[in-house]
Design a protein that fits this description.
Number of helices: 12
Order of helices and strands: HHHHHHHHHHHH
Helix content: 55-70%
Number of domains: 2
Shape: elongated
CATH architecture of the largest domain: Orthogonal Bundle
Mean pLDDT: 85
CATH topology of the largest domain: Tetracycline Repressor, domain 2
Strand content: under 5%
Oligomer: single chain
Low-confidence stretches: 1-20
Length: about 200
Amino acid sequence: MDDGEDQRQGARRGGRPRAASAQVLADAAAELFLEQGYGRTTVDQIAARAGVSRATFFNYFAAKSDVMWLDLDAAVHDIPSLLADSTEPSPVRAVEAALLAAAREHDPGRVPWAIGQADVMHVGEALVESVAARIMAQHDTIARFVAERTGEWPGALWPQTVAGAMLGAAAAAFGVWVRDGVRRGPLVEYVGAALTPVAAGLDAR
């Protein structure tokens, strides 16, 4: 069954007669997580609410937990290419610039609902696991970049230190930005304030 047929059937049964997209699926998931909790919501239910097929869901997301991080994933998508293209002599400053660029890319109007409403949605361990997986993926990317620049191997102390310190600061800034609610300013300002002293200290090595 193709997506067009999915959408036509969705319209007939009262579903959403809209084009399939990652955002539509993420919005449908958020509604269901609020209504019945994360654990009780299935991929099939999300797809049905969005008016598409299960196969269409997996065209956009590898797992149910991925719908929680649509905007964040989009923002960090270019970090590997930003690092690869960087002409900054200092690998620490190159990492800083890439993380700041990612922060600028994040839509300031879209705060991850999985964090803001985690208790209501009963996300629990899935939230922790999905966050950890994303941090580790970026950690590996940064460690490999620093290792290439310094001639070390990615598991060596310095690449691991740079990746851990810089990502830790950026993650802390992101958490504060989310919790600041209506008082929050642009994410890049938070990330910049967190990274500046860390990058300066590492770069002074």
